[in-house]
UniProtKB/TrEMBL annotation:
Belongs to the binding-protein-dependent transport system permease family. The chain crosses the membrane at residues 12-43, 75-97, 109-125, 131-148, 160-180, 206-227, 239-260, 346-368, 398-418. GO terms for cellular component: plasma membrane. It comes from Thermosipho japonicus. Gene3D superfamilies: MetI-like. It comes from the Bacteria. This is Multiple sugar transport system permease protein.
Length: 429
């Protein structure tokens, strides 16, 4: 027994000795700077206190959220209303499955009527006070919980998990953005972003993430399916799509800067073929984030397509042959075989793409000559906000605090993805 323990201890010690050089390098260049910057986020450290920073607690974090002018809506009230809108969005999607069970088996009629009543109240929600909204949220939550206990409609719901999650998100955004509701978080952030630079950076970054991640994954999957089929010159197309990814982001941004030129750019030239007036891509505030997103999507598509292609080629052809014997068409094979078995690959790309999207910086810096957009900080992102505080304003303490806020946001979204991924991702050995 002692011999076995000694042998295991010796093997572990030998393994750590092999890892020691890497641990030393990581400790010096990664772990120490990360830990030290976290400590400095609680210190007053700027160009006036360069040599003698002093501890000021959470003042750096508090100052980040200070508004130049009071926001129109309260954050807590907007949060409560948004919780209600999310519950309503879930209820609307679930009601669709309740309707199916009512028409198919003549059951759950009372539950369907109970579901419809809160949905009909949507236009009146903006006129109720905060306490009534809290009560409304409790009632809708109980309805949602009761729906989820219904095994028949939840079986239908789970068969299209990804589609239902997308439908809930879309429905929630439509409710928030509708003219009937003005008290949600969406309106709070739209108002607050012009009164606080950090909130503006947060809104712009989320806008960028929402634009780039789904579109990149969708186009990449489409290209991967095409490249996985029997087409000619597959090697040429794979290489062509992958070249932008390995090209320097600065070089890519400089080329796109010329393409986006509103007078001599190729993009406006091509749009003129369809009678579309020239767009001021690099000069109009509303096009700032879409412009950055186009560059990022074009650069990232090749990498995602290659990873999707590897996932497609890892699916055993036996499944498709069995489906053909059962008379399945192309859509059935994709929705019932390809998409479920590709979920681990999609999950990986979703996490990597979202983390990368939150860290966008170089495209903004190059496209707008070192400025956060053409005017009004329309291209201000989270990383650019940290860069501006640290490098230009030399307020290193607040910059460290902002960097850890970004880290916290990425950590929360990654944790949510892992939580959801554990339930919906199908790993097949």
């Amino acid at each position: 027994m002692k011999t076995a323990t000694k042998k295991k201890l010796k093997e572990s010690l030998l393994a750590y000795l092999f890892l020691l050089p890497s641990l030393i390098v990581l400790g010096i260049f990664v772990f120490w700077p990360v830990g030290f910057s976290f400590v400095l986020s609680f210190f007053k450290w700027d160009f006036r206190n360069m040599n003698a920073p002093y501890f000021n607690g959470f003042d750096n974090y508090i100052s980040i959220f200070e508004f130049d002018y009071p926001p129109k809506y309260s954050f807590f009230g907007s949060f409560i209303f948004s919780i209600g809108y999310i519950l309503i969005a879930i209820l609307i999607v679930i009601t669709f499955y309740t309707l199916i069970t009512v028409f198919s088996k003549k059951k759950n009629t009372i539950l369907l009527l109970l579901n419809v009543i809160p949905i009909l109240l949507i236009p009146f929600l903006k006129n109720i006070n905060l306490y009534l909204m809290i009560f409304f949220n409790i009632v809708v939550f109980i309805l949602v919980f009761y729906n989820f206990k219904n095994s028949e409609q939840m079986k239908l719901y789970r068969n299209y998990t990804w589609l239902n999650v997308a439908a809930i998100i879309f429905t929630y955004v439509m409710i928030e953005a509708s003219k009937f509701n003005e008290n949600g978080l969406l309106n709070f952030f739209m108002d607050a972003k012009d009164k606080n630079l950090f909130v503006k950076a947060l809104v712009n970054t989320f806008y960028y993430v929402i634009l780039t991640v789904p579109i990149t994954l969708a186009i990449s999957l489409f290209l991967a399916v095409l490249l996985n089929s029997n087409i000619r010159f597959k090697v040429f197309f794979r290489t062509s799509y992958f070249i932008p990814f390995v090209t320097s982001v600065v070089a890519v941004s400089l080329v796109w800067k010329w393409i986006f030129n509103d007078e001599f750019g190729l993009l406006n030239y091509f749009l003129s073929w369809f009678g579309i007036e020239p767009i001021r891509w690099l000069k109009d505030e509303k096009w700032t984030i879409p412009t950055i997103a186009i560059v990022s999507i074009w650069k990232q598509i090749g990498y995602d397509a290659i990873i999707f292609l590897a996932g497609l080629q890892n699916i055993d052809q036996f499944y498709y042959e069995a489906a053909e014997v059962d008379g399945a068409n192309s859509w059935h094979k994709f929705s019932k075989i390809t998409w479920p078995l590709l979920s681990p690959t999609t999950f990986f790309l979703l996490i990597v793409s979202m983390i990368g999207a939150f860290k966008v910086f170089a495209q903004v810096y190059v496209l707008y000559d070192g400025l956060p957009g053409p005017y009004n900080n329309s291209g201000m992102t989270m990383v650019y906000y940290v860069f501006d505080l640290f490098y230009r304003q030399q307020r290193m303490g607040i910059a460290s605090a902002a960097a850890y806020l970004l880290f916290g946001i990425i950590l929360i979204f990654t944790a949510i993805q892992y939580k959801v991924g554990n339930k919906v991702v199908e790993y097949v050995s």
